[in-house]
Amino acid sequence: MNRTLENTQAIGVFDSGIGGLTVANAIINHLPNEQIIYFGDTAHLPYGDKSADAIRYYSLKIVKFLLEKQCKMIVIACNSASSAAYKVLLDFFEGQALFVNVVDPLVDAVAKQNYKKVGVIATKATTRSNIYKHKLLELQPSLKVNSLATPLLAPMIEEGYCNDSISDAIIEKYLSDPSLDDIDALLLACTHYPLIRNNVEAFFKNKVNIYDSTDVVAKVVEEKLKHFDLLNPANKKEHQFYVSDYTPSFEETTQVFYNQKIALEYCPIW
Ligand code: DGL
């Protein structure tokens, strides 16, 4: 580590918008002593439709901001950014903080099982990167991995459609895709999707094992902080939530992802 890290420093968490609050929430519930500094890049969402180069550029700038806030760890709470930008972030900033992406914890959890076929649903950017197939096959070469882009799901969830006829129809349409026939497990490879986990489980009649990036990521955060002796023994500091573009509607939507409305602070880093 080039920078001396203190256990009282915050954990920086970022996403394209507010979907990554599902990950922040899981970390807060799992590690109540930790302070979170969250950055939602609402000026540029959705990342799922952006090129890998654009996502890398945005991510570099956000991490610079979070490092200036003295974060001891950066959690990339976005699959699109984890798949496009994790390597470049390490190239630029390794040694200045600990880094956690949301892809590896899911891959490790799934690869421990003896599945024959798994499905991955994600944004276009994550699907195009093929990162899950790549990483899973490295650990389990005989596994069949089918990835499906499901771009309507993130905006649908942000608009609050999770448990009604509209969301049911969209979810059913995607999950009926023949590429997902006979899967043993499905990875919800977008940080918005924990909100439709119940709908997905119901669609598969609880016969398919579902993985999302909340608890598995929170556990990896804990393990990594513990390993470096950086768990905060007692936090007294308030969490901070920044966005690169502010509208009242973003603030309303935090309720969907965080179980309570959060005050968002506008922070134009561009
Ligand atoms: N939360 C982002 C992810 O996990 C998806 C939303 C977006 O497209 O920006 O990929």
Structure write-up:
The protein folds into two domains: 11-101 and 215-266, 3-Layer(aba) Sandwich (Rossmann fold), CATH 3.40.50.1860; 104-213, Rossmann fold, CATH 3.40.50.1860. The protein has 270 residues and is of the alpha/beta class. 42% of the residues lie in helices and 16% in strands. The model has no long low-confidence stretch (mean pLDDT 96). Helix 3 (79-93) links the parallel strand 3 (73-76) and strand 4 (98-101). It has helices spanning 21-30, 52-68, 79-93, 103-111, 124-129, 131-139, 153-158, 165-175, 197-203, 215-227, 248-258, and strands at residues 11-15, 36-40, 73-76, 98-101, 117-122, 144-149, 185-188, 209-211, 240-243, 265-266. The longest helix has 17 residues, at 52-68. D-glutamic acid is lined by residues 15-17, 19-20, 45-48, 78-80, 123, 126, 154, 190-192.
Structure at a glance:
The protein is α/β, with parallel strands linked by helices and 270 residues long. It has helices at 21-30, 52-68, 79-93, 103-111, 124-129, 131-139, 153-158, 165-175, 197-203, 215-227, 248-258; strands spanning 11-15, 36-40, 73-76, 98-101, 117-122, 144-149, 185-188, 209-211, 240-243, 265-266.
